[in-house]
């Protein structure tokens, strides 16, 4: 994993993508703009693991370029790829509100660039808007339920 520079073009893509992410819909445009400076861009090599199932979640990701696999361990020796995510796809939003263990492993299938928002940097926005926090927790709980029943 390598930290990359975020230019104006990447920031524009990021802003447009965040507006489309249901999880961020409770936030106002102003609140979303407050979050943007805290989002970093990281590059991952093909085969590199972003995070592993069972690790405590502490960040949210948006795929900027490349593809990643969502893998779920079913037993000691068997894991299943349940999804492939490409540009504009997002994952890890549950970690922003719950800090619960990851329910899947994410691995780069090819060189990939991921926008990353660390949960600690996101907390200040939620403190300013309790109604948005409650709605985001509801969305995260629904997505966690959906992912655990696939």
- The assigned CATH architecture is Sandwich
Total E-strand runs: 9
Shape: globular
Number of continuous helical runs: 5
Low-confidence stretches: none
CATH top level class name: Mainly Beta
Rg calculated over all Cα atoms = 15 Å
First CA to last CA: what distance?
A: 29 Å
CATH homologous superfamily designation: Jelly Rolls
Relative helix content:
25-40%
Kindly state the mean pLDDT as a whole number? Answer: 88
Strand-and-helix sequence, N→C? EHHEEEEEEHEEHH
Strand order, largest beta sheet: 1-2-9-4-7
Q: Write down the CATH topology.
A: Jelly Rolls
Strand content: 25-35%
Which quaternary structure do these chains form?
A: single chain
Main sheet, how many strands, which sense, barrel? 5 strands, antiparallel
The overall number of domains is 1
The class by helix and strand makeup works out as alpha+beta
